């Protein structure tokens, strides 16, 4: 049955940056389809709270602290998950940051480096830690949460945009190198989603107005609207998809080239 392909029972999923926002919604989606989810972020207290909420809904979740730019915490995360469940089937590299809004020529290099460490370098190293596990299991699904900003430039956020473009190319390279091991790697590019991360943009009146004008659906999305895609890409329903970049942006990237016609 095709419906059965969406079933994630007996699968173990790690979701980074899952204490709130898009990561939390994706983790809940996976858990509702039967996965055992590992909620991860920088703060143990925050991930414990989400895991406990999920468990009280009858879902299966544990919280494990991991700052994704800290290699030793990544290693501990994978070790703890293997100790608890003995397998990893799904990895969602979702944790991200956008600390600099300003012109390129004034961008401090240390902030640029921090952005790259969290948004792209962490995805390389965490995927590399999970790779031997998935290879040994003869399969797995890795999802990178990129952004429409990785496909199309906006002013004042070059560091973020560069990191999100790099994440897409990382996934394409992983897809062609790891396809032989039945490990699929796909990318999700959300448009604007109402979360803490997007607050600076969405609370800026002029930026918000221009966004509303350009998005075909004329609104921002909720984190929940990103979850179905994560379930699909994590599951066997997408068993032939790898190296793909899926845009989920309310039509933002189709903003008309000619207006008022
Ligand atoms: N919101 C949007 O409009 C939008 C659009 C396109 C793409 N995205 C992407 O979607 C992803 C999630 O963003 P969001 O909007 O859901 O943000 P959010 O609501 O601010 O949540 C960010 C999550 O990441 C965690 N986090 C932050 N830094 C971390 C680090 N160094 N290590 C581990 N966890 C960390 C945070 O938890 P702690 O504070 O507990 O660590 C939190 O759980 C990001 O990659 C972002 O670039 C967002």
Describe this structure in words.
The protein is α/β, with parallel strands linked by helices and about 260 residues long. The protein has one domain: Rossmann fold. It has helices spanning about 20-30, 45-55, 70-85, 110-135, 160-180, 200, 205-215, 225-235, and strands at about 10-15, 35-40, 60-65, 90-95, 140-145, 185-190, 245-250. It has a seven-stranded parallel beta sheet, with helices on both faces. Helix 1 packs across helix 8 (about 225-235). The longest helix has 29 residues, at about 110-135. The protein starts with 11 loop residues before the first strand and ends in a 13-residue tail after the last strand. The model has no long low-confidence stretch (mean pLDDT about 95). It binds NADP nicotinamide-adenine-dinucleotide phosphate.
DSSP strand count: 7
Under CATH, the homologous superfamily reads: NAD(P)-binding Rossmann-like Domain
Bound molecules: NADP nicotinamide-adenine-dinucleotide phosphate
Instruction: Tally the structural domains.
Output: 1
Strand content: 5-15%
Tally of helical segments: 8
CATH topology: Rossmann fold
How would you characterize the largest beta sheet?
A: 7 strands, parallel
The run of helices and strands is: EHEHEHEHEHEHHHE
CATH level-two architecture: 3-Layer(aba) Sandwich
Overall 3D form? globular
């Amino acid at each position: 049955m095709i419906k059965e392909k969406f079933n994630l029972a007996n699968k173990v999923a790690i979701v980074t940056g899952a204490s709130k926002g898009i990561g939390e919604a994706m983790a809940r989606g996976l858990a509702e389809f039967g996965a055992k989810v590992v909620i991860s972020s920088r703060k143990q207290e925050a991930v414990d709270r989400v895991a406990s909420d999920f468990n009280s809904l009858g879902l299966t979740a544990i919280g494990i602290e991991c700052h994704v730019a800290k290699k030793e915490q990544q290693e501990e995360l994978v070790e703890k998950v293997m100790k608890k469940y003995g397998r990893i089937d799904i990895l969602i590299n979702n944790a991200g940051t956008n600390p600099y809004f300003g012109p390129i020529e004034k961008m401090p290099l240390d902030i640029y480096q921090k952005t790259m460490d969290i948004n792209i370098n962490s995805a390389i190293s965490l995927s590399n830690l999970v790779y031997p596990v998935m290879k040994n299991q003869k399969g797995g699904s890795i999802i990178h949460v990129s952004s429409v900003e990785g496909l199309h430039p906006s002013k004042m956020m070059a560091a973020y945009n560069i990191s999100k473009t790099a994440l897409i190319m990382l996934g394409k390279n992983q897809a062609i190198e790891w396809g032989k091991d039945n490990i699929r790697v796909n990318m999700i590019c959300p448009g604007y989603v109402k979360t803490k991360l997007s607050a600076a943009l969405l609370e800026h009146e002029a930026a918000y107005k221009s966004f509303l004008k350009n998005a075909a659906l004329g609104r921002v999305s909720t984190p929940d609207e990103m979850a179905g895609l994560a379930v699909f890409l994590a599951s066997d329903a997408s068993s032939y998809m790898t190296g793909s970049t899926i845009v989920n942006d309310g039509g933002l990237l189709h903003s008309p080239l000619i207006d008022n016609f």
